[in-house]
Specification:
The protein has one domain. The protein is about 0% helix and about 45% strand. The chain is built from no helices and twelve strands.
Length: about 120
């Protein structure tokens, strides 16, 4: 599988990476992020696209082989990556919010840090 993210207002870095699939993709709605808190914080996650009127798209998680990490859970979204916000935050998705942030993708080691849409 290939993941491509353009440089954009959601996340500065562009990237094009290849992973070997080790399981099926599933819709994901929440992840535990360790970006801002070493203990982790539960966050909503959505994919982000270049459609300025409707930028949100599904986010997925898939077990993949990563040459540097072995098996990992890859969380990915649209051409502009994924966007995260703490679950306690009661605001709409917005690039202007200082409480939200974008990533090209996430690589998570523990499946307990992921909540699928059907969970």
């Amino acid at each position: 599988m290939f993941v491509e993210v353009e440089s954009n207002p959601n996340c500065d870095s562009s990237m094009f990476v290849r992973f070997k699939e080790a399981g099926p993709a599933k819709l994901v709605v929440k992840v535990r992020s360790f970006e801002r808190n070493a203990q982790g914080e539960w966050c909503w996650v959505t994919g982000w696209t270049d459609d300025l009127e409707h930028p949100m798209c599904p986010a997925y998680v898939q077990l993949v082989e990563d040459s540097g990490a072995g098996l990992t859970y890859l969380v990915y979204g649209g051409i502009w990556g994924i966007r995260l916000k703490p679950i306690a935050l009661k605001e709409d998705w917005s690039l202007e919010s200082r409480n939200q942030w974008g990533e090209p993708y996430l690589s998570l080691a523990d499946p307990k840090d992921i909540i699928h849409e059907d969970a």
